[in-house]
Sequence to fold (401 residues):
Amino acid sequence: MNLSRRTLLASAAATPLLTGTGLALGAGEAVASPAKLRGALDYGLAKLKAVAPGITSFPEITRFEKWTYVADGGWVGGFWPGTLWLAHLDSGDARFRALAEAANERLAPRRLDPRDHDLGFLFSPSWVTAHRLTGGTRWRDGAIEAAATLLQRWNPAGRFLRAWGRLGTPDNAGRVIIDTMMNLDLLAFATEQTGDRRFLDIAIAHARTTQAHFLRADGSTPHVFDFDPDTGAAVGPNTVQGYSPTSCWSRGQSWGIYGFTTMYRRTGLREFRDTARKMADYALSVLTPDNVPVWDYRSPLGAHDVKDSSAGAILACGLLDLAKATGSDRYRDRALQILDGLVGTCLTTASARAEAVLARGTRNRPAEDGVEVSLPYGDYYLFEAILRVLKPAQIAKAIGL
Ligand code: GLY
Fold:
């Protein structure tokens, strides 16, 4: 047979590869081996050991590979202490714990500040994890205060937690975003600790509102859904960080998959598991063969558009949890493929000046704010995902699995 160069390349690409696990898989289906994940985490720990002692604020985004900061924590302030807690968990190094406690402390004023919905992002990876790992009651009590602050944003007419805008003003008063699914676990924690059902009941109601209005038939979601803030009547889908109201911002989809799976775990309500599954099946059906999400799954540039590695790290965590929730190994295999893609193509290893671990993140593409950057939530969820694979009992203690 006379094989052209093109035919040879195509058949080589389809030839099964032997991965570190010894599994035979097709090209693009390699799963991250434990050794590869261990190597990536060691790289992250070494980076953190070098960079963290010089950091006294909250990393927000990199500019030319160096962290820039947001002094009051912005919405990201939980991820820096969270990463340090996970570094301590993995290494046992007391220096990481001291840095994590100091970073936790800097977040304290935010627990009483109802300026936005981000209290779960701020206090779950930081104060809740600190309590779960150390038993410190100060962290528990502060996290419960933060949950009570979040309840101030409850809109009973629309049965949702308002994402943005100062309370008492019309600014974004009827705006719900998919990201809020990640803030609900703080409410579950408050009910777990206090026995007061109000927190979890509001979390369930918000998740049901999200489920009813965001989910499209194919399992994709918009970033935003607007309601009339006075009557609670549905207005329609919208976007801020996605391509359009009818597109699917990949990080938002990942927040939803992770958040609905968590809500299933906290409540046992199968509707949340089914929603997470539908959303995951959509994301997996449109993931490119490199297993790193494009910033919006419906970008007109398709596979050629820029990536968001943070969407991949969050998705890997959600899928690992969903695999346990559903008993389906397929979600775990896909999570390991995503981790293989992240570790193989997105680490900052090629640059000595980089201060973060994961490159190729996108913060806000429509605003042209933060493309090909590192993001503190990219690093945090990469650590979390790797620990979910390598040290499941320890990470379960840290985040309450
Ligand atoms: N929660 C905001 C974001 O994911 O960019």
Q: What stands out?
A: The chain is about 50% helix and 10% strand.
